[in-house]
Amino acid sequence: MKARRQRSAAERSLRSVALRLLVNRMQQQAAGSNQQQQQQQQQQQQQQQEQQQQQQEQQQQQQEGEEQQQGLRITIGPPLPLHTNPHTRDEYVAKRRAAAAAQQEATSSSSSSSSSSSSSSRSSRRGERGTRHAQAVLVERQHLNAAPNASTQRPKK
Predict the structure, then answer these.
(1) 113 and 145 in contact (C-beta within 8 Å)?
(2) CA 14 to chain centre
(3) pLDDT tens digits for 95-110?
């Protein structure tokens, strides 16, 4: 549709220029000046050539635009996976597990009893607030293990 409109507009402009040139020629012939007529004819020919070149360029641009429009293709496929590179995801998980194991070993080596090491490993999973609570529980358990309650001891005979 656009191409047709542009072509028809270009043709109309060419026709109007051609009519102007004819009118100018007729006026010059009536005046009888041969030199002016030749100069104007040359100018008119140059103008016509320029207009034809412009029209050809417009048509080429239109054809290129139509070819580009025809060349466009939009494809819609399945969504990309969340982890596009499984190696990086696996490496990340392995690093996190190694860091957690190292932290667990560090906390278990600092505690004295096996029950405290299991609670400290639990606390490493809870976060900072959980670790404070777990440390307080550890201290209480250590005190209980060091000095058992008098009610649990049997009286000596």
Answers:
(1) yes
(2) 48
(3) 899 999 999 988 887 7
